[in-house]
Every structure is written in structure tokens, then in C-alpha cells.
UniProtKB/TrEMBL annotation:
<keyword id="KW-0442">Lipid degradation</keyword>
<dbReference type="Pfam" id="PF04083">
    <property type="entry name" value="Abhydro_lipase"/>
</dbReference>
<comment type="similarity">
    <text>Belongs to the AB hydrolase superfamily. Lipase family.</text>
</comment>
<keyword id="KW-0732">Signal</keyword>
<dbReference type="InterPro" id="IPR025483">
    <property type="entry name" value="Lipase_euk"/>
</dbReference>
<keyword id="KW-0378">Hydrolase</keyword>
<feature type="domain" description="Partial AB-hydrolase lipase">
    <location>
        <begin position="49"/>
        <end position="108"/>
    </location>
</feature>
<feature type="signal peptide">
    <location>
        <begin position="1"/>
        <end position="18"/>
    </location>
</feature>
<dbReference type="InterPro" id="IPR029058">
    <property type="entry name" value="AB_hydrolase_fold"/>
</dbReference>
<feature type="active site" description="Charge relay system">
    <location>
        <position position="388"/>
    </location>
</feature>
<dbReference type="GO" id="GO:0016788">
    <property type="term" value="F:hydrolase activity, acting on ester bonds"/>
</dbReference>
<dbReference type="GO" id="GO:0016042">
    <property type="term" value="P:lipid catabolic process"/>
</dbReference>
<protein>
    <recommendedName>
        <fullName>Lipase</fullName>
    </recommendedName>
</protein>
<feature type="active site" description="Charge relay system">
    <location>
        <position position="355"/>
    </location>
</feature>
<dbReference type="InterPro" id="IPR006693">
    <property type="entry name" value="AB_hydrolase_lipase"/>
</dbReference>
<keyword id="KW-0443">Lipid metabolism</keyword>
<feature type="active site" description="Nucleophile">
    <location>
        <position position="184"/>
    </location>
</feature>
């Protein structure tokens, strides 16, 4: 069994690496722009693909960042049960996905098990973000999706542009502070923003699922190999600017492989990256492969590798003191200081004992930085068997994570 999985994994990686769509060459620099406007539900949009088919009302909105990226943000304003089908003055909840996926990662589970749909059914105004470069957020005011300059971004741009634009838009639309839910990179985005005293005035609470604040102890085999061998940096130096694992032929091959009874595809595709997820059903793999993975900038992969090797959470390091001075006014990149997170902000934090990306030792560092937090304003949950993908793809996440989180929210009102 292990030999079969190893052979298939090796073969799959070789196929992906030999696919032209996997990497894209760069040739030019960046540009900027700005605008913001709402958009109604449209044919083929995010709402049509994942939300309305499940019987929920949905609105597609466009939010344009100060550097010109046009982000799709989907709104589920009400649930589908008889008592939930009212708009009214509902509390907004903003869900932010991690890297290599998009907002559909919150909708892969059936409606009764999905966090987004459960929140809507419980009376919340739900907003799903699709980060720059993902399928529904490919637009830009001046750059084409395939322009190398389009992909010139790291964590810093997500923190400086995407989150503020999205927060402000939802705040303006609802007139209320936001409850924020992040998974994986989504947690790092909001913690980095809060550490620099951004967005706090628009936040009602924060939920950190599989929090990634520090990465020096990560046991993710794939992440370690890429980081320790400077693979992303090497590819960047060769002119590759985009990390894109999605290809129609590869996806169809993986679907066929995943239907082989003796192949545990959840282990095959996720364990080398996320750790051994305990509770994902094999049937979810077809749904996942229909929509994910999503591309990301090579620069953000390099940034994550820097955090893994360095152990500290800093802005992007250009590995040249002169360039760093040009960007930051100092020879080394500034740190995102987690101690700066407001001590009276309600926080729900959940992490897993089998999570290779959000390692227990790294989460301990985060918790150490939160020691001065108001004990009445923080809930810390540890689930021994959970790994990284369990938080968005396991059927029992509702029982173990989502229900306690919704109870946490209800206590705030």
C-alpha cells in the first residue's frame, strides 16, 4: 500500500512538473490602480457555481484594491430555513481562505456540515473572500492575468491591500464591525494586519483555525523540502513567476487514481503537505479536484519559505540590504509582531495535534505572545487528531469546531 502510494505520488509530481501550466515565465514589472463597485449575481459567477445550487441566496460583489486587483467577494445574506429567510440587521462574518485554494474551500462539505452555510442558517450575514489570482479574482484595472507583473505580490500585499479593501467594503455595506474567520494563511493575514494596528477598528472578533503565525517548527514534508532546498527561489531566478498546479489533464488523471479502491487519496494528496488528516471522507476528493487547487504567486511561496527557514514572521526579505532599505527604510525586513494584537479582542483559536503546517510548537509561540490577553476574551481549542485540511474538509469539523465557534459568537451578542 505504501509502495503504491509512493509510486503514484512520484508519478503525479513528475506529471505536474512537466506540465506547461505548472509554472509561467516572467518578463515585466508591476502596475497600480484603484476602484470599488458592487456587482449583481451573474451567470457563471461564484454564487452560481457553489451557493445558489444549494438553495441559498447569494450576491457576487467586486472589491478593487488600491493596487488594482479586482477581488470577488460572495455574500450569503440569509439561510435557507424558513426562520432564516430574512435580511434584517445581521452580524457580518467574513471568511478568508488559505493559499492554493479559494473561497470555495468553505463550501466543499455538504450544506449541513459547511461553516459558511451553517453561519447563514444561524442568522449571520456571510461574506466569502476570493484572494487575488484565484479563479474568481483574476481581474486587474491595468494588468492582464498572464502578465508577470500581475504576480508580483507576497503576504505583504495581501495584508496591505486585500484585507483593508475587503474589510472596508463589507463594513460600508453592513454598517457593522466584522467577525473574521481565517484558515491557514488567512489567519496569518489578519494577525499580521493587527500586529501593525490595521483593521482593528472594524473587527468585532477573530477566529483562527489552524493558525499560522510562526512556521519555524513546521513538519510539513513538502514545505520543508521546498524551503530547505530553496526550490522556489531557484525557480524565481530562472524566470518563473507563478506556482500553478491546476491542469485539466492532471486533474482528470488524479480523479481516476482517487477512484482506485486501494488508494487513499486523502493521504496521497494531503499528508505530505498538511499532515495526516483524520476525518476526511474519500468522496470529498472529487469535489475538491473540481475546484481546487488555485494558483499563487511564486513570490508568496518564497515568502513562506523565508518564514520556515527563519522562524520569525517578517515582511518579504529581498536578500539585499539596499533593496530592503528602498522598501522598508532599513536593511532587514520589519517583523510582524504578534504581541501587538489587541488584548481585549475576542479570539477563538483552534489547532490540531496532527497539523504539520500549524505545528503545535509554533502555535505555542503564538499562545505565548497572547499571554497578556484578557482571559475572558479568548477561547483556545486543541483537537489531538486534527490536521490542517480537517478544518475545512472533514465532516466532523461541524461538531468539533464550527458548533463551538458559533456558540462563541452567540455569547458576544
Amino acid at each position: 500500500m505504501k509502495l503504491l502510494n509512493t509510486i503514484i505520488l512520484t508519478y503525479t509530481i513528475l506529471l505536474i512538473l512537466s506540465t506547461p501550466n505548472f509554472l509561467s515565465l516572467k518578463a515585466q514589472e508591476n502596475g497600480t490602480g484603484m476602484a470599488t463597485m458592487p456587482v449583481q449575481s451573474s451567470e457563471g459567477g461564484f454564487c452560481k457555481s457553489m451557493v445558489e445550487t444549494n438553495g441559498y441566496e447569494c450576491e457576487d460583489h467586486n472589491v478593487t484594491t488600491k493596487d488594482g486587483y479586482i477581488l470577488n467577494v460572495a455574500r450569503i445574506p440569509m439561510g435557507r430555513c424558513r426562520d432564516c429567510r430574512t435580511r434584517g440587521n445581521k452580524s457580518p462574518v467574513l471568511l478568508q481562505h488559505g493559499v492554493f485554494v479559494d473561497g470555495r474551500s468553505w463550501l466543499l462539505l455538504p450544506p449541513k456540515q459547511s461553516l459558511a452555510f451553517n453561519l447563514a442558517d444561524k442568522g449571520y450575514d456571510v461574506w466569502l473572500v476570493n484572494s487575488r489570482g484565484t479563479e474568481y479574482s483574476e481581474g486587474h484595472t491595468s494588468l492582464n492575468f498572464d502578465d508577470p507583473a500581475y504576480w508580483n505580490w507576497s503576504l505583504d500585499e495581501l495584508v496591505a491591500y486585500d484585507l483593508p479593501a475587503t474589510f472596508q467594503y463589507v463594513y460600508d455595506q453592513t454598517g457593522q464591525k466584522l467577525h473574521f474567520v481565517g484558515h491557514s494563511l488567512g489567519t496569518l493575514m489578519v494577525m499580521a494586519a493587527m500586529s501593525r494596528d490595521q483593521l482593528v477598528n472594524m473587527l468585532e472578533s477573530v477566529a483562527l483555525l489552524s493558525p499560522v503565525a510562526y512556521m519555524g517548527h513546521t513538519t510539513s514534508l513538502l514545505s520543508r523540502v521546498i524551503a530547505d532546498n530553496f526550490i522556489a527561489e531557484t525557480l524565481d531566478s530562472l524566470g518563473f513567476y507563478k506556482f500553478d498546479m491546476r491542469n485539466v489533464i492532471i486533474i482528470e488523471i488524479l480523479k481516476v487514481i482517487c477512484r482506485i479502491p486501494s488508494v487513499d487519496c486523502t493521504t496521497l494528496l494531503f499528508t505530505p503537505y498538511t499532515g495526516q488528516n483524520c476525518c476526511m471522507k474519500p468522496s470529498i476528493m472529487d469535489i475538491f479536484l473540481d475546484h481546487e487547487p488555485q494558483p499563487a504567486a511564486m513570490k508568496i511561496v518564497i515568502h513562506m519559505c523565508q518564514l520556515i527557514r527563519g522562524g520569525n514572521t517578517t515582511m518579504f526579505d529581498y536578500n539585499d540590504s539596499g533593496t530592503n532599505i528602498k522598501h522598508y527604510g532599513q536593511p532587514t525586513p520589519p517583523a510582524y509582531n504578534m504581541i501587538g494584537i489587541p488584548k481585549d479582542l475576542p479570539i477563538f483559536l483552534s489547532h490540531g495535534g496532527a497539523d504539520a503546517l500549524s505545528d503545535v510548537d509554533d502555535v505555542k509561540l503564538l499562545l505565548d505572545s497572547l499571554q497578556g490577553h484578557d482571559p475572558d476574551k479568548i477561547v483556545v481549542q486543541f483537537i489531538e487528531r486534527f490536521a490542517h485540511a480537517d478544518y475545512v474538509m472533514s465532516g466532523n469539523a461541524k461538531e468539533h469546531v464550527y458548533d463551538p465557534f458559533i456558540a462563541f459568537l452567540s455569547r458576544l451578542h
